[in-house]
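TOPIC: backbone geometry
CONTENTS: sequence, structure tokens:
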Amino acid sequence: MASEWREVPLVQVARISSGKRPSRALKDATSDCYVPIIGGGGPSGYTDSALFDGGVIITGRVGTLGKLFAPSGPCWPSDNALVIQPSSPETDFRFLRYALQHVIAEAAGMNRGAANPLITQGDLGRLPVSHPPLPEQRAIAQILGTLDDKIELNRKQNETLEAMARALFKAWFVDFEPVRAKMEGRWQRGQSLPGLPAHLYDLFPDRLVESELGEIPEGWEMRTVGDFADLQGGKQLEKDRIGDMTESGARP
């Protein structure tokens, strides 16, 4: 039936090809016209032309295996990578990327190399992927894409909050900005400044004093981390314990 889900080898729904070594490679992009070179481990540099204009999924062929990259624009997959593209209009590109995310780790288990991990186009083509009808592919990709967008937004918000927290810590406990603001009359009791709510006024001293590390707020002292926390080194897991966990499917 047309509405049935199928599990098929990747090669039945996608074209698989090898990347190439670019004729010119740069460490950093010196112009907006340069495109990223992408290998099995991700972006590794830039070049002045594109091998593909987009719509490709890239994974490692040799070296780093089991990762996926789907650049949003022109790119140059390097010679240590394999390139995956839908082979017909019946396969949605976004759905194929999500389907591969669930099975690509198996590629690492197909390693044909000893010292240097290696898989072939044939190995990759044998990976089983789910392939529902196109309308369902698009619906699934839309839902997962919306979740990805939300995750990315949260990640960016977290980065912003972390940057704000680092800046605030530096201002308060490295540059001692609240103390300096009080000393210079820029902060009065009952007054709020950017990042300095009024109720924090009495928590900061009124002056700085000299110490062996330079000026610090009066009444504060320099201490070591060991004065406040117990520091212990980690231990190597016993080999027989690692073997037991591997056999049971657990990870150390």
Helices lie at 93-101, 105-109, 121-125, 134-173, 177-183, 239-247. The domain at 8-131 is CATH 3.90.220.20 (Adenine-n6-DNA-methyltransferase TaqI; Chain A, domain 2). The chain has a mean pLDDT of 88.
